[in-house]
Design goal:
mainly beta, Jelly Rolls, 7-stranded antiparallel sheet, 4-stranded antiparallel sheet
């Protein structure tokens, strides 16, 4: 289980957690090459540089969510770093007791779709129950893996602060 590092939150009623802070201890899928396909690097899109969780298709990485029974919010900026290939699909799953539920999916194709060359802001509401895993996945859209990198810029989990 991850112990996410905390960063100051603009909204003082929320604890903002940087998902990049503890990637090294995140459980990575059983694919032996997965460690080579999940990285932390900075990338710029639309002139804005961000620290990113990088998933190179096909790959995924999971983070344990702590359970408090309250709803949290996941925010990030989605992109692909290269205007190459035929695109890739970004997915996020919630996993509970081995069952996955798809909560986000977006196909990006910056080589052909100009809007996919900039950061795409995303905000998702998440339940917080014990035993949940948040899984970021990159999938190819075909057999051509050229440029199939999904970048998740500044992924943060905002959770209601606990009352002492």
């Amino acid at each position: 289980m991850l112990d996410f590092g905390c960063a100051p939150a603009p909204d003082q009623s929320l604890a903002n957690r940087d998902l990049l802070a503890d990637l090294a201890s995140a459980p990575i899928d059983e694919n032996p090459s997965a460690n080579e396909h999940v990285k932390i690097w900075d990338f710029a899109r639309g002139g804005v540089r961000r620290p990113c969780l990088v998933t190179i298709a096909p790959s995924e990485v999971g983070f344990e969510l702590d359970g408090s029974g309250e709803t949290g919010k996941l925010t990030f900026h989605l992109g692909m770093p290269f205007n190459l290939g035929d695109g890739a699909e970004a997915r996020i799953y919630l996993e509970e007791e081995g069952k996955r539920t798809l909560i986000f999916s977006r196909v990006l194709d910056p080589a052909r779709q100009r809007p996919d060359r900039d950061w795409i802001p995303v905000e998702l509401e998440l339940p917080r129950r014990s035993g949940l895993r948040l899984i970021f996945a990159a999938l190819p859209t075909s057999g051509d893996l050229t440029g199939d990198w999904i970048i998740w810029g500044e992924p943060r989990l905002s959770l209601p602060r606990s009352n002492p």
